[in-house]
Amino acid sequence: MPLRRFAFPLLIAAVAASGSAFASDNDIATITRQSQAFSEASAGGDAAALGKLLDDHVVFMNEDGSVSGKHDIVAGASPPPKGVRNRLVQSDFHVALHGDVAVTSFTDDATFDTYGQVAHDRFRSTEVWLKESGQWKMISSQTVEVPVAPPQVRLSPAVLDQYAGSYELAAGHVMRIERRGDGLVTIGHDDKPVPLLAEARDVMFRQDLPRLRFVFERDAEGRISGFDVMRVGHVMQHFKRV
Q: pTM for this one?
C-alpha cells in the first residue's frame, strides 16, 4: 500500500495549547520524532515500526480517497524494490496540543525515483495523535494532493478555430469561446476573457482551476457539438453548442 510520507520534517512551528511549557515541549519533541519515525518506516516498508506508532483504531485517509486501518497499513507495508526510491520532505509543520490530543498539519514535497525516472508531487496532511498511558499514538490522518495544472500543448490556429463559438449551459446561461492570437479564451457573463489551454486535442484546462477539464464532444461529421466540464472524472456541467 503506498503511503504519502517518506521523510522527516525539516521545519517545525509549534503551538502549545495546554500544560506546562516543559511538558508541552517534551510532547512536541516526541510527536516530531515519531512523525519522522513513521515517515522512515513508510519509506522502508517497516511494518513493525508502523505498528508501534499507530493506534489500534486509527483511521487513515489516503490521497486517493481510500480509507485504511492499522491492519491495512501494516499488512501492506513492504520494502520498495531495488531501483526505486521515494523521498518526502515535510515543511510548514505545525503541532497544536489540546491536552492529551495533538493535531499536526504540514506540506509534503515528494520525490519519486523509479529506475532513474524522477517525478515530484506535493501533498497536504493533517494528523491526530492521542497520548495513551504516557505514549503518543496516531489515531487519524488525512492527506490531499495539491493539484497542479498539466503541461500545455500547442494546437494550430486551424484546430483552435474549431472550438470558437457559443455554448449554452441552460436558457440564458451562455459561454463564448474565442480564438485570440495563438490561443483560446472563455468569456462568461462578466465579459472577462480567461485563457483556455490545451492538454490534448479536445481536452482543455484553466491554469487557475487545475482540477477541472473541458472535454469537447464531436458529432458524426467531426464537428464540435458541446463540451463537459469535468472534475476528477465527474461531469459537473454540460454545455451544448448553439
A: 0.76
